[in-house]
């Protein structure tokens, strides 16, 4: 008997059941009342935005293919580009931190034989943006930063890279990478639990680095799961809800929620009411609402208690009988929830600009 | 076809003639420039919402129906394509979005390809260089390919599935393209291995229209690739028994997602 067979036998003997996998069926949803929820809240009108994030001071940091744009909490705007010291023009991701600060990450450099900073820490100072580039230079394996999650308890950023997750800490240290068992791949989704563990959502699996409250970089990875049946998961996003459940999006397979305690997976596809399987990002509202950015069918929201999806499209009604959404484009590349703002805002990055929604 | 024991050598020879840096991405289907494509074509990996005909008309694309409805990369035209017509479409072959075209043939295709045959299973050695991917082990399946009435052999794609005890299949890989050996033989090279999971695997072929062949006879994979555990420049943690255990339990979950009639189902 192999080790794995032995472990499986032990698990089964103990009555451990994985996973009841459930595929939700469609439930009808009603869009929030009110006209055009996204139409009057434009933050940025360019077509080159890739990701937006708000710092704790309410400033919105926007990563674009032409530098960084900042929409200040007072309504003013700033730009930060290569002429100002930005490492490179194309910025892949932006993540807000303490008031007036953010971390941005870059796609791979054109010349992979040359080391280039993969991240840059930005601060508002003297009415402008001041940058501090950082390089993961220890192995040369890290060439890009895809997305980062901010741990407000520890003032740290966990960064999804081409090789698992890396860490940028409050002391300004850029710490090299950790990744789970092969096969893995690009990490696009990163989520941090209240206890400090880090979920890594990559091309082939969802895994947890048990970093804990001390942000133990050398901790082990587990569990290692594939929420969707096929080997290629193409996970694009991860978020942890109040119950500890992990929501993941896939670039090609929709949405799933893992309950790590019960080892139960619930998947959401087109048959469940999700408008598209092409999920580029997702975010959680404090009330539990799940916001999903699709690459071709606009924005969707899920009421987890009822299982009802509501869809917001650029040019069609915001639901079966709702008003037009005012969304700039059905190509939604990112969604995030800004809790520094009252009421909270849902910040939506599309292929035709960045907008915010503060309704229910 | 070389004997399984010679396959690693054959692959090494093959690889010595291949350029490095191949992407871990399945190429689009039909291939840009293809001709004679059925008017009921199944499109893969185009990430497009519409096809533009040479006359300027647009055919909207929809999420493809079962059994392709679990992957956003599969798209179907909302209405049958016109015979003998060239369609423009965006595609992303790995180097960024660009535009290609294909030309339809005389009509639809409703006949499935013949069943392929898997001639064995050979664990590869070390990382997977065939696809330019980082993987712990490569798994190789010598293949007797399928044939189809309308789709050229080079355009036929293969699925690899676990054969379940109840007769159903659980798809683990899709859109595999056979790798040619120097002697003319073919292999299915699984890009990321089998995650260390033993089982009986079958292959099916699909044609341009998405007609799925009967399955091959199952091939038993007794020992899959070994797993190395978390790595970092700061030091590796010890192998996590819990991780290994959950990986196996995940496999059980897949088995419980039983399917019938030979096609995967959620």
CATH class of chain A: Mainly Beta
- Rg value of chain A: 20 Å
Report the major sheet of chain B. 6 strands, antiparallel
> How far apart are the termini of chain A?
56 Å
Number of helices, counting only DSSP H or I runs of 4 residues or more of chain A = 1
Q: How far apart are the first and last residues' alpha carbons of chain B, in Å? A: 36 Å
Describe this structure in words.
The complex is a heterodimer of chains A (360) and B (266). Chain A is mainly beta. Chain A has a single domain (24-357), classed as Methylamine Dehydrogenase, Chain H. Chain A has one helix at residues 3-13; strands at 21-23, 42-44, 49-54, 60-64, 67-71, 77-80, 93-96, 101-105, 119-125, 128-134, 145-151, 156-161, 165-168, 174-179, 187-192, 198-202, 206-209, 221-225, 235-240, 246-250, 254-259, 264-268, 279-284, 290-294, 299-303, 308-312, 332-338, 345-350, 353-357. In chain A, the strands form seven sheets. A five-stranded mixed beta sheet of chain A has the order 1-22-21-20-19, with no helix packed on it. Chain A has a four-stranded antiparallel beta sheet with strand order 2-29-28-27, with no helix packed on it. Chain A is globular, with a radius of gyration of 20 Å. Chain B is mainly beta and 266 residues long. Chain B contains two helices and 16 strands. Chain B has helices at 7-16, 241-256; strands at residues 43-44, 50-53, 58-63, 74-77, 86-91, 98-103, 117-118, 122-123, 139-144, 157-163, 169-176, 179-180, 186-190, 199-206, 219-221, 231-232. A six-stranded antiparallel beta sheet of chain B has the order 1-4-3-2-5-6, with no helix packed on it. In chain B, strands 7, 8, 9, 12 and 13 form a five-stranded antiparallel beta sheet that branches. In chain B, strand 12 (179-180) and strand 13 (186-190) form a beta hairpin. The longest helix of chain B is centred in the last third of the chain and has 16 residues, at 241-256. The model of chain B is unreliable at 1-6, 9-23, 127-136 and 224-266 (pLDDT under 50). Chains A and B meet through helix 1, strand 14 and strand 18 of A and strand 11, strand 16 and helix 2 of B.
């Amino acid at each position: 008997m192999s080790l794995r067979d032995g472990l499986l036998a032990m698990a089964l003997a103990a009555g451990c059941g994985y996973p009841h996998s459930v595929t939700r069926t469609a439930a009808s949803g009603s869009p929030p009342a009110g006209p055009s929820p996204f139409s009057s809240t434009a933050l940025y009108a360019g077509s080159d935005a890739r990701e937006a994030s708000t710092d704790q001071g309410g400033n919105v940091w926007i990563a674009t293919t032409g530098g960084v744009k900042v929409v200040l909490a007072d309504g003013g705007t700033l730009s930060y580009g290569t002429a100002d010291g930005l490492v490179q023009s194309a910025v892949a991701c932006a993540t807000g931190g303490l008031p007036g600060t953010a971390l941005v990450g870059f796609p791979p450099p054109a010349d992979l034989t040359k080391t280039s900073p993969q991240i840059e820490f930005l601060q508002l100072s003297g009415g402008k943006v001041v940058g501090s580039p950082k390089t993961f230079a220890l192995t040369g394996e890290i060439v890009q930063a895809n997305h980062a999650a901010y741990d407000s308890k520890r003032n740290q950023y966990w960064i999804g890279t081409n090789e698992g997750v890396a860490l940028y800490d409050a002391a300004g240290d850029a710490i090299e990478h950790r990744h789970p068992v092969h096969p893995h791949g690009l990490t696009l989704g990163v989520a941090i639990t209240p206890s400090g563990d880090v979920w890594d959502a990559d091309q082939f699996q969802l895994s947890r680095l048990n970093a804990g409250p001390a942000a133990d970089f050398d901790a082990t990875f587990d569990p290692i799961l594939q929420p969707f049946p096929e080997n290629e998961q193409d996970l694009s996003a991860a978020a942890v809800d109040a119950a500890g459940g992990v929501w993941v999006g896939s670039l090609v397979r929709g949405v799933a929620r893992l309950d790590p305690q019960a080892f139960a997976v619930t998947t959401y596809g087109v048959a469940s009411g999700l408008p598209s399987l092409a999920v580029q990002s997702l975010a959680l509202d404090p009330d539990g609402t799940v916001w999903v950015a699709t690459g071709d069918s606009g924005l969707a929201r899920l009421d987890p208690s009822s299982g009802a999806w509501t869809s917001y499209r650029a040019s069609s009604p915001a639901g079966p009988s709702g008003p037009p959404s005012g969304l700039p484009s059905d190509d939604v590349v990112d969604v995030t929830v800004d809790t520094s703002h009252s009421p909270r805002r849902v910040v939506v990055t599309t292929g035709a600009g960045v907008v915010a929604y503060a309704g229910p | 076809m070389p004997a399984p024991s010679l396959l690693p050598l054959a692959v090494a020879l093959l690889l010595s003639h291949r350029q490095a840096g191949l992407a871990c991405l399945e190429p689009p289907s039909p291939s840009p420039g293809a001709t004679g494509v059925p008017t009921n074509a199944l499109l893969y990996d185009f990430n497009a919402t519409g096809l533009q005909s040479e006359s300027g008309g647009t055919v909207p694309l929809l999420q493809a129906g079962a059994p392709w409805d679990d992957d956003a990369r599969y798209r179907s035209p909302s209405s049958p394509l016109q015979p003998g017509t060239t369609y423009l479409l965006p595609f992303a072959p790995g180097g960024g979005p660009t535009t290609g075209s294909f030309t339809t043939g005389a009509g639809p295709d409703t006949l499935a390809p013949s069943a392929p045959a898997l001639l064995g299973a050979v664990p590869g050695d070390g990382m997977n260089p065939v696809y330019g991917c980082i993987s712990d082990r490569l798994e190789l399946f010598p293949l007797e390919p399928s044939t189809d009435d309308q789709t050229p052999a080079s355009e036929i794609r293969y699925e690899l599935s676990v054969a379940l005890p109840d007769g159903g299949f659980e798809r683990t890989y899709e859109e595999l393209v056979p790798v040619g050996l120097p002697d003319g033989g073919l292999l299915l090279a699984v890009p990321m291995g089998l995650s260390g999971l033993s089982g009986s695997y079958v292959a099916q072929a699909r044609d341009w229209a998405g007609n799925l062949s009967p399955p091959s006879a199952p091939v038993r994979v007794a020992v899959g690739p070994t797993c190395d555990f978390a790595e970092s420049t700061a030091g590796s943690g010890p192998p996590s028994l819990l991780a290994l255990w959950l990986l196996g339990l995940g496999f059980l979950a897949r088995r419980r997602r039983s399917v019938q009639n030979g096609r995967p189902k959620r």
